[in-house]
Amino acid sequence: VNYDETFAPTPTFNSLRLLFSTACLKRWKVRTFDVKVAFLHSLIDKPAYVWPLMGMDVPKHKVLKLNKALYGTKQASRCWWLHLKSILQRIGFVNNKEDPSTYTLNRGNEQAILWVHGDDGALTVSSDMLMKILITQLNLYLKIVWDNAVNGLVGISITPTEDGFKFWQPDLIDKLTGLTPSKIVAKTPLPMNCQLESTYSSNVMDKPYLRRIGILLYIAQASRPDITYALNYLARSMGILISNSSPLLEMRCFVDANWGGEGNRSTHGYVTFHGTNPIGWQSKRQTTIAASTAQAEYMALSFAAKEMLWLYNLFFDILKNPIPILYSDNRTAIGISTETMNRKQTRHLIRDFNTINEFITTHKIKLEWISTNDQLADILTKSLGNVKHGYFVSKLTYS
Fold first, then answer.
1. Residue ranges of the alpha helices (H) in the chain?
2. Do 99 and 246 fall within a single domain?
3. What distance in Å separates the CA atoms of residue 341 and residue 184, rounded to the nearest whole number?
4. In this structure, is residue 163 part of a structural domain?
């Protein structure tokens, strides 16, 4: 065996959206790039040999020893990640512990954030001069093609607008609609109170169905939070605008839960904003059965708080954001979380869910009540009617 370690981290969509949100709100420039033959820049970490290709002048019974992490070798991705990491550290970047394929740089009053996925990446910096310096330094070590204008990354079209960037996936959506026999556009992802019977669910688990769900899940994670609940529901059995219009760099997270449902398991959802820009979202069935709406909401708050603090800490050394805020429309769950109400009804819940109380007590987050009519996470927990669905979509900063 010619390898030991093969793991190489890949960055999240959340950190990519946070990078662009930071660039917009701070009025920083963004450049995207592609590293040519990236893997061949890095040395292979273990002796590895290959058979010579047909036509090569190699003595009989001889093999070739690899010097570089050739594409196709098991450890190539990891070797490239370690090689790039060492280069960036020489330049002055710090590898982010929260997301190991993102990097930050503080150089006097100048700052930069770098996001790398394989051989593609994005760089945002606080000044044109620092951008020129970093591009020059990186070009000394790597063969990089720098895009003159931002147009896309990892299958996401990123279109500059007057006040920011639009994240959308028109090509992938067009491809998907070509797979389906119907071209009818629905006003909402699911009908209200939709219930799939188990007999129906088993009949649709064919390859075309699974393929469409897989494509849609990628789209939902990258640029379409409004279809996240519908896909979460179906998998059981428009694009966002990143804008510079908000004067604040605060993080806000809207959290909701829909108690009960199939198998008595609740569904929770949350969407996190950086300023006015949605950067992270999730819709998920809870694995622990909640005995009441308040319990479901309390567990949802714990899940959301952990995710929001992860995002908050991601670029904390650069952003220095105000304390993030969670919004819930359930006063009982808020009372339990802030310990201003008797916790008898939640005492049987596992300790993991009590982290929300610790975060509030130590002033890592704030928790505030919000009206159900303004609870944006509602769109991630259940199917809504046309009017309410449309209203929440507009609040998610859509074109």
1. 13-26, 76-91, 128-141, 170-179, 198-203, 207-222, 228-236, 293-314, 316-319, 331-337, 355-361, 386-395
2. no
3. 49
4. no
Mutual orientation of helices 207-222 and 228-236 as an angle, nearest 10°? 150
For the record, the structure tokens of 321 come out as: 């954001």
179 and 140 within one domain: no
Residue 121 to residue 13: CA distance in whole angstroms: 12
Instruction: Indicate the residue type of 301.
Output: L
Tell me the pLDDT tens digit for each residue of 276-329.
889 999 999 898 888 889 889 999 999 999 999 998 888 877 777 788 999 999
Question: Which residues 6+ apart lie within 8 Å of 241 measured at CB?
Answer: 161, 164, 165, 166, 167, 277, 397, 398, 399
Task: Report helix, strand or coil for 299.
Answer: helix
**The pTM is what?**
0.75
**Which residue in the block uniquely carries the two structure tokens 């469409």?**
212
Q: List, in order, residues 6 or more apart from 371 with CB less than 8 Å away.
A: 329
What total of structural domains would you count in the chain? 2
Based on the fold, state whether residues 250 and 354 are members of the same structural domain.
yes
pLDDT at 208: 65
Where in the sequence is the domain holding 91, given as residue range(s)? Answer: 13-148
One domain, residues 119 and 235: no
What SS3 string covers 124-182?
A: EECCHHHHHHHHHHHHHHCCEEECCCCCEECCEEEEEECCEEEEECHHHHHHHHHHCCC
Assess whether 326 and 382 both reside in one domain.
yes
